[in-house]
Design a protein that fits this description.
By secondary structure, this protein is an alpha+beta fold. The protein has one domain. It has 2 helices and 4 strands. Strands 1-2-3-4 form a 4-stranded mixed β-sheet.
Length: 93
């Protein structure tokens, strides 16, 4: 991760196309998962959706989907609503 000026009380959230560390969203066994916005983030991950649910499995699209999911989760959107949104997400024309 890069160094950044962070406001006190803020949390850094990351995304990866691999297995996420605590505080990240990523991909495990073809499943997009959340290890940032769940209480059990130190010991587990919560499923958001399957890679097959996405309109594209291109790395840039998956990274964008994970970033969108992180923003939604940061605003308190439920995992099921994020899943539904990811399933509807389409690549830019």
């Amino acid at each position: 991760m890069r160094e950044a000026d962070v406001v006190e009380g803020a949390r850094a959230i990351g995304v990866t196309l691999g297995i996420p560390s605590v505080g990240m969203l990523g991909v495990v066994d073809d499943i997009l998962v959340d290890r940032a916005f769940i209480e059990e983030r130190r010991s587990s991950a919560a499923e958001l959706c399957a890679l097959a649910d996405l309109a594209s499995q291109e790395p840039a699209f998956v990274t964008g989907a994970l970033a969108a999911a992180a923003l939604a989760r940061a605003h308190g959107i439920s995992r099921s609503a994020v899943r539904d949104g990811l399933r509807e997400l389409r690549p830019a024309p």
